[in-house]
Each structure stands twice: as structure tokens, then as C-alpha cells.
Design a protein that fits this description.
Layout lengths: L1 H17 L2 H30 L4
Length: 54
């Protein structure tokens, strides 16, 4: 999922450099959403991994 966030970030940077602001904004927002989802899943896995098994 982090891969997709990086891909959309690169697309946003290229589109921004070429002047396609609508596409750049959309790709950047998708990259931000994917990054937040990845971060939340990472934190949940850290918390779940620290619980002792009974």
C-alpha cells in the first residue's frame, strides 16, 4: 500500500511540473489518503504485536 502512495506522489509531482493542476491535486490527495491508511495499519500491527499471547 505504501507503494501505491509513492506512485501517486510521483504522478502528482510530474503532473504539477507539467502544469496539470487538477490531476496533480487528485493524485496528491489519493497519495495522502493511502499514506494515512498505511500509517494506521502500521500502528495497529505494532499494538497488536506487543500483546502477550495467553
Amino acid at each position: 500500500m505504501l507503494y501505491y502512495a509513492v506512485v501517486f506522489l510521483i504522478i502528482a509531482l510530474i503532473a504539477g511540473a507539467l502544469g496539470f493542476f487538477g490531476i496533480a491535486g487528485m493524485a496528491a490527495s489519493i497519495a495522502k489518503v493511502l499514506f494515512v491508511v498505511f500509517l494506521v495499519l502500521f500502528l495497529v500491527s505494532l499494538i497488536a504485536g506487543r500483546r502477550p499471547t495467553i
